[in-house]
Amino acid sequence: MRYGEGLLAEIRQRTDLVALVGRRVKLVRKGREMWGCCPFHNEKSPSFKVNNERQSYKCFGCGKGGDCFKWLIEVEGLSFPESVEKLASEAGVELPKWSPEDEAREQQKKSLYDVVELAAKFYETQLFEPGSREAREYLKGRGLDGAASKQFRLGYSPGGNGALIKHLTAHNVTLDDIIAAGLARPADDGRPMRDFFYNRVMFPITDGRSRVVAFGARALEADAKPKYINTGETSLFSKGSQLYNFATARAAAIKAGTIIVAEGYMDVIALVRAGFAHSVAPLGTALTEDQLHLLWRTAAEPILAFDGDAAGLKAAHRAAHLALPHLKAGYSLRVAFLPTGEDPDSYIAANGAGAMTVLLEAALPLSQLLWHAATDGKDFSTPERRAGLEHALREIVSHITDAKIADYYRRGFDELVFNSFKRRAPAPARPPQRQAPGFQGGGRYRGDYKPRPLPGTPEAVSASVQGSALVRSGQAGVRHAKEVELGRLLVESPEIALAEAESLAKLDLSDPSLDRLRHELLNLAASGSSLEKAGVQAHFTSKGIAELLVRFAGSTVEDPQASFQRTVADLRELAGHQTDARRLLERRKAFSERPGDGRGT
Q1: At 335, phi and psi to the nearest 5?
Q2: Burial tier of 576 (Cβ tally within 10 Å: 0-12, 13-18, 19+)
Q3: pLDDT at 468 > cutoff 70
Q4: Considering the domain 5-91 in this protein, what is its CATH number?
Q5: CA 585 – CA 202 distance, rounded (Å)
Q6: Main-chain dihedrals φ then ψ at residue 569, nearest 5 degrees
Q7: Degrees, nearest 5: CA angle 464-465-471
Q8: Is 32 helix (H, G, I), strand (E, B) or coil?
Q9: Which of 219, 222, 237, 226 has its CA nearest to residue 156?
Q10: Alpha-carbon distance 70 to 61, whole Å?
Q11: Which own/partner contact pairs does 366-373 have at CB distance under 8 Å and 24+ positions apart?
Q12: Which label site among 178, 211, 333, 400 has the fewest CB atoms less than 10 Å from its CB?
């Protein structure tokens, strides 16, 4: 009995090779690989590697290696069909009944790869023909030049209903194969067979081995519905189990340690061109279980980069609930929302790849997404509504099958509910008592106390600010540096804004960007937010002001609160000096403009 490559690939995808090999070999993680002593020869130091992402094992001592089927053949002595049957049973994959007709279909499938590749080349060529100007203008308007079109093998399906059929039949492709590849619609209602795609920009879709198996297509007519269509289900293509750009993104994702899931073809292209090569997209549908497992075979925590509109939120919530039953130790999802009205292309064009990096790094963990989905925009002012929230959170946890993860989620939600609704508000702090000049706390006299000179007098202005040029250059430069230092502290440790809200609010700032950063953090603090760094970054991103985080990005410090207090003290002193200097200059100017007193000039 023979099995198609698609079926074998599905079994490999559903088989955890590390767990399979781990039944016989003690494996230890080193970086991204699992290592152990080879079971095929005696060795004292591990040279046997297992890689789940590549679905393979390899011994660098004796050279033996292979996939999950080869493992059972070599370790358990099974035949290849027996290994397929055993792994299919464990993975829950139903094996088809094989017949001479099945053999014929397998042979046809091999030929269909050639048919679809031939179509891809035809569409690529058509994009640069005179009649495809509208398609080229559309791509140009999206910032894609000829090099980008070649990189992603973009194409154009001509407006005529039979251009591709004519081209393929001229290359001896049968009409049955053209239909089987999803490239033509069968004749019906007396109409002849016609191309499935026409007058559309074409996006080739490849399988895990980089073979073109299908196409996505965008209509050029403004009123076309639907705007995007895909190849229908074929023996080569199932849109629920494949991802756009996955073959190319897989290696980059393994190197980056994560994989980005965008919403569409153009989103992926924009991300890849901006340096995020580890980007993929579902194929016109919501994320499926098969696609989720495919992502997890590549990275432990894929990032869903969705639009911040209602559709993007809905897609993120659907993906979150889809993932719940499949969560396991170390494997989850994170979600990054673009500002409303933005897609990766427009966002990167306006803000740069650095801002996109900040947005992705600020992606919400799955638990926070679920909490926000359950609470944002809702009124919990009554006990009944708060009880309803707790019931909804318990319902979410009930879908998590891993007991340990479910317990952590339950505890995390309980803590959030407690902090939001059940924690008693702290008693208001007593206002500090004013003390007479010259005394410290406890009534001790400070002998070195000197009263501060009256503002505006020469004694109140230090030598460093006697001249207006020095005020503008020296002190202003120092103040700017101190404000940048404050901005970095707030970005790296935003919880300072909660602990030092009053002090921060009273501070006189000259930098408009820092002032905006301060106001946003104080508003968050006033709303009851915890001001965790990830949540703050997500908030700034959703409001389209992530550039503030990039502007003040910097290194962390050991004691942020102490650094904050020193910086604030310095800024207050500098502000005082500049105010005193301005007043002195104004007094001098007013004095010089007074009428003469008769003593001559």
Answers
A1: -130, 130
A2: middle
A3: no
A4: 3.90.580.10
A5: 70
A6: -60, -40
A7: 120
A8: coil
A9: 219
A10: 18
A11: 366/320, 366/323, 366/327, 366/332, 366/333, 366/334, 366/335, 367/409, 367/412, 367/413, 368/534, 368/535, 369/316, 369/317, 369/320, 369/333, 369/335, 370/320, 370/396, 371/413, 371/416, 373/313, 373/317, 373/320
A12: 211
pLDDT reported for residue 448: 38
d(CA 199, CA 127): 11
**How many whole angstroms separate alpha carbon 311 and alpha carbon 340?**
10
Least confident of 21-30, 410-419, 448-457: 448-457
Q: For domain 246-376, say whether CATH 3.30.420.10 is its number.
A: no
Are the beta carbons of 366 and 336 closer than 8 angstroms?
A: no
Could you give the angle at the alpha carbon of 270 between the alpha carbons of 265 and 274, nearest 5°?
145
Minimum mean pLDDT range among 222-231, 395-404, 580-589 = 580-589
* Tokens describing residue 151: 């990189």
- The mean per-residue pLDDT over the stretch 294-311 comes to 88
φ/ψ (deg, to 5) at 40 = -100, -10
Six token digits for residue 172: 């001896």
Does the pLDDT at position 157 exceed 60?
Answer: yes
Alpha-carbon torsion (537, 540, 546, 552), positive or negative: negative
Model pLDDT, residue 587: 57
The candidate with the shortest Cα–Cα distance to 532, out of 558, 498, 503, is 498
d(CA 195, CA 186): 9
Q: What is the dihedral of CA 491, 495, 497, 503, to 10 degrees?
A: -120
**CA 264 from centroid of its chain's CA atoms:** 14
Domain 102-230 matching CATH 3.90.980.10: the answer reads: yes
C-beta separation of 499 from 488 below 8 A: no
Cβ-contact 7, 96 below 8 angstroms: yes
Per the structure block, which two tokens stand in for 329?
A: 């130790």
Q: pLDDT at position 469, please? A: 34
Tell me the CA distances in angstroms from 315 to 285, 344, 465, one per residue in order: 10, 16, 59
Enter the DSSP assignment of 472. Answer: I
- The domains of the chain are located at 5-91, 102-230, 246-376, 461-592
